[in-house]
């Protein structure tokens, strides 16, 4: 049964234009879906796919450490189910048309890099201040409230690099 589910998932990804590759020697990925074996990082690259929302199946991949959904057509906010990706260290959602960020992102305690640049964000959830392992927060190219960012910044570690 497990193999049947795996087969259906792989077939679905292949039919949607994604390619699965186990990257062994840190070679540059040339595909859309990458799992890196040598570094232990599990990556999913869904950039440049014309997505209007993140596929629900992504939120079941709880071992993901890096998720790239940049250069799509995401609108509104990322689904609240993002909270299921508890091992996520890097989230790149840049270059979309998102207008909001779900408060649930604040539950991603291992998140180190959050790139929300070049969207249409007008507000930021205070829960971003809960990201105690955050190293880089890129908010450039948005029209968010500086008051929101000031409140968030007070709760973040002083070492966080905030790109405005």
Write the layout of secondary structure elements.
Elements: H1 2-15, E1 20-23, E2 33-36, E3 43-45, E4 66-68, E5 75-76, E6 90-92, E7 97-98, E8 113-115, E9 136-138, H2 146-155, E10 161-163
Parallel strand pairs: 1-2, 3-4, 4-6, 5-7, 6-8, 8-9, 9-10
Can you offer a commentary on this structure?
Helices cover 15% and strands 18% of the residues. The chain is built from two helices and ten strands. It is α/β, with parallel strands linked by helices and 164 residues long. It has helices at 2-15, 146-155; strands at 20-23, 33-36, 43-45, 66-68, 75-76, 90-92, 97-98, 113-115, 136-138, 161-163. β9, α2 (146-155) and β10 form a beta-alpha-beta unit. The strands form three sheets. Strands 3-4-6-8-9-10 form a six-stranded parallel sheet, with no helix packed on it. The protein has a single domain (19-163), classed as Leucine-rich repeat, LRR (right-handed beta-alpha superhelix) (Alpha-Beta Horseshoe).
Keywords for this entry:
164 residues; alpha/beta; Leucine-rich repeat, LRR (right-handed beta-alpha superhelix); 6-stranded parallel sheet; two-stranded parallel sheet; 10 strands
Helix content: 10-25%
Shape: globular
Tell me the number of helical segments per DSSP (H or I, 4 or more residues long): 2
Give the integer mean of the pLDDT values. 84
First-residue to last-residue Cα separation: 48 Å
CATH H-level name... which superfamily? Answer: Ribonuclease Inhibitor
| Strand residues, percent | 15-25%
